Amino acid sequence: MSNEEDKQDKRGFKVEDRRRFSETGEARPDVREEAPEPAPAAAAPPSAAAATAAPATQRHEPPPLDINFSTFIISLSTQALAHLGEIPHPIDDQVAVDLGAAKQLIDILGVLKDKTKGNLDPSESGLLDSVLYDLRLKYVERVRSRPDRIGS
């Protein structure tokens, strides 16, 4: 062994060309095709038997949507509706009222309306106006029916 080869052996570093094709594009006979590594068990989709054994409270998440301004507004309004007690919480199916959180989300939507004025297309502007009107109306109705619970 030469001095240079001895240095490479001590480092324990070996380069092996595992490409299936040569530089000319022909298949190399000395390279075997490797099977793809199986996905980890945690990332594998649940089997039908596992799905039926899952508790009834566990929900399957819908596939993610393309996020745009309208879906963002709908997401914020859905959260506000949950805090107003209009819809159950998506994770635990419990209906809880948190007027402080609902007011904060409604205020955030109002800020978005002010900051995006003149930059939205008519459908986005109409959606934002409609959502704000409905949420503000529901908030006022909820506050009038439960004046002792504003801060909670």
Short description, anyone?
The chain has 5 helices and no strands.
Description:
The protein is mainly alpha-helical and 152 residues long. It has a domain at 69-146. The protein contains five helices and no strands. The protein has helices spanning 3-11, 48-53, 69-83, 99-115, 122-145. The longest helix is centred in the last third of the chain and has 24 residues, at 122-145.
Descriptive keywords:
single chain; mainly alpha; 5 helices
Average residue pLDDT: 77
Largest sheet: none
Low-confidence stretches: 47-54
Count of DSSP E strands? Answer: 0
Measured by DSSP, the beta-strand proportion falls in under 5%
Class from helix and strand fractions: mainly alpha
Q: Helix fraction?
A: 40-55%
Can you count the helices? 5
Give the overall form: elongated
Secondary-structure topology with pairs:
Layout: H1 3-11, H2 48-53, H3 69-83, H4 99-115, H5 122-145
Helix pairs in contact: 3-4, 3-5, 4-5
